[in-house]
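User: I'm putting together notes for a lab meeting next week and I want to include a structural view of one of the chains we've been expressing. I don't have a solved structure, so I'd like a prediction I can at least talk through. The sequence is below, exactly as it appears in our construct file.
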Amino acid sequence: MEIYQESGAREMNFESLIEPLMAKLRLMVGRCVISASRYKNGELLADIELVAGERRRNVEFLQQFGFSSRPKGDVEGVALFIGGSRDNGVVVSTRGECPDLKEGEVRVHSPFGSSITLKKDGSVELVTNSKKFRFVGDIEATGEVKAMCDSTFVTLTGHIHPTGVGPSSKPTPGQ
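Assistant: Thanks for the context. Below is the predicted structure for the 175-residue chain, given as structure tokens.
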């Protein structure tokens, strides 16, 4: 019976020794809600709320290379805390659900209704919340270009203009 008590005492002692380490580990990763974001000195920072109402301000918000976003409203995310210190955190992921995407499809979207979807069939779908797309720079197209408007249909492959010496010739691809 004394051996059991000694063994139990050793186990309790080990638990009390490891508990501070376990507490730090539990603090290293947490779900959060981003309530506000701002740029400060070129760095995106977020105000977040963690479990039990714990709030942190000016938490660095890391993003994937080539993608940039700035959360609007309450957006769910995941935050990492270096060394388990809640004073040294980074937001590494946010939730943006698109339940209509098929497996393998990718969508870049804003909370304002505009999106770009890389579709499973290889097509690209552009959606805007207004009636306007803005292109900066030259546009080069291969294949037939069609413009469908409310009142007219125009195809540019057979497009000719009347001139003083007769109609212009059809466009030559690549020129």
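A couple of points you could mention at the meeting. DSSP finds one helix and twelve strands in the chain. The two ends are 96 Å apart (CA to CA).

User: Perfect, that's what I needed.
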